[in-house]
Design goal:
Blueprint (H helix, E strand, L loop, with lengths): L22 H13 L3 H11 L5 H10 L4 H10 L3 H13 L7 E4 L2 E4 L4 H14 L3
Antiparallel strand pairs: 1-2
Helix pairs in contact: 1-2, 1-4, 3-4
Length: 132
């Protein structure tokens, strides 16, 4: 993203995998961390610690990354971001998504984990095609 400052925008949507026990609460955790300005720290922690994503561990991770644990725990327990997550899930269904991650780069669908170089190539192509 740093190489394209002011040229591209990253929008993240949640699509908890329906066959994973803790995917919804993990999405809640990432958004609760976002409320405190630490989305990426929680994101990276969830990736590293998967599949240990139960409530107890999520609270431990929140403490490790320096979140206000009381505020974080209240958000989890009240499912504060459930409406956002459900909205994102509906969007994924409407877009016929079946795999995460899925990227859209100017409408070009890219499914699955891809290298930086692969994504960079598409971004560069799309930037060249932008009407000035």
């Amino acid at each position: 993203m740093g190489n394209y400052k002011g040229k591209i925008r990253l929008v993240i949507k949640n699509y908890p995998y329906k066959y994973r026990d803790y995917s919804h609460i993990a999405a809640e955790a990432s958004l609760a961390a976002m409320d405190q300005g630490k989305y990426w720290e929680m994101h990276d922690m969830l990736i590293r610690k998967s599949p240990r994503l139960d409530r107890e561990n999520l609270i431990k991770y929140a403490k490790e990354i320096g979140l206000d644990v009381k505020v974080f725990t209240e958000a989890l327990d009240k499912m504060k971001h459930s409406a956002i997550i459900e909205r994102d899930k509906k969007l994924a269904v409407d877009l016929d998504l079946y795999n995460t991650p899925t990227y859209f780069i100017n409408g070009r669908k890219v499914i699955g984990n891809r290298s930086y170089e692969y994504l960079k190539k598409i971004i560069e192509e799309e930037l060249r095609n932008v009407k000035k």
